[in-house]
Structures are given as structure tokens and as C-alpha cells.
Amino acid sequence: MTDSRSRCGECPTRRFCLARDLDASGLDRLSALLAPPIQLSRGDYLYRFGDRTSALHLVRSGAFKTLTVTADGEEHVTGFHFPGEIFGLTGFTTGVHEDTAMALDTSSVCRVHVDELPGLWGAGCDVAFLRLLGEKESAATRLRILLSEPRAASRLAVFLLQLAERQRRLGRTTDVLYLPVSRTDLANHLGMTLEALSRVISRLSRAGLLAMERMEVRVLRQAELETLAGSR
Amino acid sequence: MTDSRSRCGECPTRRFCLARDLDASGLDRLSALLAPPIQLSRGDYLYRFGDRTSALHLVRSGAFKTLTVTADGEEHVTGFHFPGEIFGLTGFTTGVHEDTAMALDTSSVCRVHVDELPGLWGAGCDVAFLRLLGEKESAATRLRILLSEPRAASRLAVFLLQLAERQRRLGRTTDVLYLPVSRTDLANHLGMTLEALSRVISRLSRAGLLAMERMEVRVLRQAELETLAGSR
DNA sequence: CGTTGGATTGACGACCCTCAATCTGGGTGG
DNA sequence: CCACCCAGATTGAGGGTCGTCAATCCAACG
Question: A138 to chain B, minimum CA–CA distance in Å?
Fold first, then answer.
């Protein structure tokens, strides 16, 4: 139970979120403005489809997935979210969430109510906010390009390389990737069937390019993965 | 040459952009804050990959496309943008644009510099801004789901239905869709080859579901198109 | 030890990507 | 005015990949 004066100052993600540009006193001010982070366990829902939307969310630690159900009843995993990433904006269109957010692991998230945004704007978070929005759109664009890749192996390779890049920006190692995601969810997110993903993983594992376990992926030959990513 | 006091008040898109919630005096104030819209002709570049990013853009009339070139030299059409839609945020990540924006037709666009954003926040545009961001993420999500559709016919059907929905929200008819896009660009955007798209269009035209010309699409049997969209 | 859910592997068929030829319409120049 | 050209669009043939259906395997758990 750290008090509010130092909470943001001690946050491991403070260089990657709205606090990116703040100095010590700025961090204290931000801590005072915001409610304490929300703690969640694996499988906990942060919000569900149809909940009233009054805030946006920033991942502090752990990982989240968001998913939607389309008109014809199909479930789609629309994104995985790691520290420093913003999500939950879709709800602002209609005032209720259009997706469901679930913690993939022990996680924490900072909730920013819409009423608090003007205050943040004056607290030196304006540039950081735009930057987060830009990174969000960039990520969405890269995912779009990934999904128009016709071959399943290329899609997986691109996804893993993008995941490595996300981890690199957080200052983590890029040879062991943190990915607490089931095969089913990953296949769904990458736009392929569970079987197709399983085959690709088997093939690439046998070839010695990577090793996938429940929670982490080891990239053994990044160069060959990059070749795969670029070959149509 | 309308003067700044009435410019936004006369804009046909004022109910779909940042000015959404403003009354007459609010519209006057907004007109005074912003520079006049930028006029472009078909094929004109609004900005190019690598240009310095100092503003975001809102479509006032016409249509735009954005495209990126990936590391391996492939060109990808990342989006089509219609009145009331915001684009050009990716550049805020690094300070230079990561994509290129081109007018698809005679078009106009409102440019909002980052320095002007705090002023807009105080001018009653805050909720509208969040709403535009939410709509943007919603659209990105829908496109993601579209692209994970395995069959080409379903992808086209979903795209056309989403286009109809966009037009409906602008108060236009949904049986004739405005789409000033080449086959090549559309195929690229939908993640398939030119040939595959051509075949699908031929097939659906022969079946009497739709009629596609250079600039517009006629949806002749919406119900059957919806069936196609939902059938995996 | 049996059950259960997730993951893997196999066989088959449909769809799409690739390569290639043909067709169409608009613009230019002789 | 017509022949030519060129880019975009259409159509065709063949092969590879993935989706589907189904059986099997595996580990965790009661």
C-alpha cells in the first residue's frame, strides 16, 4: 500500500504510459489525480460487452485480451494488450462497451475516467496521450497487414516479430516472448483455425526456428523468421 | 469564400465531426480557431510517408485512402476514409507520418494542429473527440474481423455492408454506395488478389446481388449479401 | 483410474494464389 | 478518323494451402 504521492513514481510502466514525459513532481500530481490501479487475476473480466463506458484503460502490468461477438454469433479475439497500451475506446461510440476485456494473467490496469481527461491534459500528459493513440493506430495497421498475409506461417512469423518489437520497447529481452494465450485464442486472433496454427507451430518447431510453451515463446532463429514473414 | 464566422455552420459534415455537439455560437468559435479546410483533387497527396506530423486530419467531403509500404517493399492500402472520419494519427508515434494519404476524388479536409487541441478541448469538442476515436477503433476492429474471414465473397460482402452502414450514418442512401476506388486498391485493402476480387464481383453480378462501376456500387439484394457475409 | 479439455495429426475437398492470355476502354498520334 | 497503345479488368488452367471433419494423443484433475 504505497500512498498516492509515490504510486506513479514507483510504477514499472511509467515511461510507457500517459506519465511518459513527467518528472518526479509531475508523477506525484498524476498519482493524486487518478484512482489506484485495479488488480486482476487470470480470467477476471475487466468489463463486459454492454457495460456502460465511462473510462479508458491503460495496462500497468500483465496482459489482457479483448473479444467481440459478431451478429452471427462468432467470437473474435480483437486484440492482446501489454503494459503501456491503451484500450477500451470503442465504447465511446455508443456509451456502452462493444467488446469484453479479460486478464490473461495476474495483471493491473489504470482506469482514467472521461471527467479526469481535461485535468490530465493540463498535467503534461497531452503529448503522451496523442502518442499512445498513434501507437494504437500503428499497431492496428500492422495487424491489418498481418491479416492480409495469405500464408499461415507468414502470419505467425509477423505476429511474433511484432510481439518481440513490443517487448523490446518495454526494455525486455526479445528472445523469450511473454504470451499467456491459448492456442485457440491465438488462432482466432490470427484469422486461422486451431489446426492450421498447430500445424505451423509443429513445422517451425521441428525446423528449430522457435519453441512455444503455454506462457512463452522462444525465438531461436530470428533471421529465418523474418524471411518467412516477408515471403508471400 | 465564406468568412470564418460561418464556415463550420455551413459545413455539410458538421454533425459528424468534432463540431457534432456544438450550437451556432460554438460553430462560430470553432471556425475562428481552425484554419480553413484544404481542397484537393483526385490523386493529390495530403501528406506522404516521412513528412513531419504536426496535425491530425478530419475528412470534410470526398474520400481518401491511406497506404503504407512494408519493410519488404509491399504496398498496403490501410484504409479508406469518408466524411466525419479522423485519420493520420500514426505519425504521432515518431513525429513523422508512417503512411501516405491521397484524395480519391475531389475532396476537402480539416487539419487540426496539435497546438490547437487544448483549445478544442475547452470549446466543447472533448466528447466528440473521444467519440471519433471510439468510432475509429470500432472501424478498425470490424475490419480486422472482416480480414479473418477466409472466403473472398464473405470479405467483399462484409466490406460492402460496412460501407452501407457508414453511408447510412451520414444520412445517405444505402442502395447506391459511393466508392471511388480502383479494383487494385480494393483487392489490396481486402487482403486478396486482383483476380480473386474480379472473379467474386463477376459471380455476384451475374447472380444479380450487386452492380459495381468505377465510382459506385449498387446493392440489389441486401438480404442475400448479408447471408454471404455470415456464411463461413 | 476415468474423465475432460486442449492440442496434435491425418485425409479430403474447396478455395485461392500464381502465372498467363485475352479483353476492354480511353487516350494519343499519325 | 482510325489505328495503335496502354493500363486496368476479365477469364482460364494448374497447383498449393488451408478449412473441414474426424480420430488420436496428452496432461491435469477429481
Answer: 5
Tell me how far apart the alpha carbons of residues B22 and B13 are, in angstroms, rounded to a whole number: 13
Where in chain B are the domains? 2-134, 149-229
Residue B151 predicted with pLDDT over 60:
yes
Classify residue A158 by its DSSP letter: H
- What is the number of other CB atoms lying within 10 angstroms of the CB of residue A169? 13
Task: Report the C-alpha gap between A209 and B108 in whole angstroms.
Answer: 49
pLDDT in tens, B163-201: 999 999 999 999 899 999 999 999 999 999 999 999 999
Q: Let me know if the fold of B2-134 is the same as that of B149-229.
A: no
- Whether this prediction's pTM lies above 0.90 is answered by yes
The alpha carbon of residue A2 is apart from the nearest alpha carbon of chain B, in Å, by: 32
Rounded to whole angstroms, the Cα distance separating A192 from B148 reads: 7
Q: In the CATH hierarchy, which fold is given to the domain comprising A149-229?
A: Arc Repressor Mutant, subunit A (1.10.10)
Order of strands across the sheet with B100-103?
Answer: B45-47, B100-103, B64-69, B75-81
**A-interface mutation test, from B81, B89, B143, most A Cβ less than 10 A away:** B89
Sign of the alpha-carbon dihedral angle for B136, B140, B145, B150: positive
What distance lies between CA A162 and its chain's CA centroid?
Answer: 11
Rounded to 5 degrees, what are φ and ψ at B193?
A: -85, 160
Cα(B141)–Cα(B22) distance, rounded to whole angstroms?
Answer: 28
With left for phi above 0 and alpha for psi between -120 and 50, is residue A43 left, alpha or beta?
left
Q: Give me B185's grid cell.
A: 486498391
CA A31 and chain centroid, separation: 23
- Nearest Cα residue to A7 out of A63, A60, A44, A58: A60
The overall average pLDDT reported for chain A is: 91
Per CATH, which fold does B2-134 belong to?
A: Jelly Rolls (2.60.120)
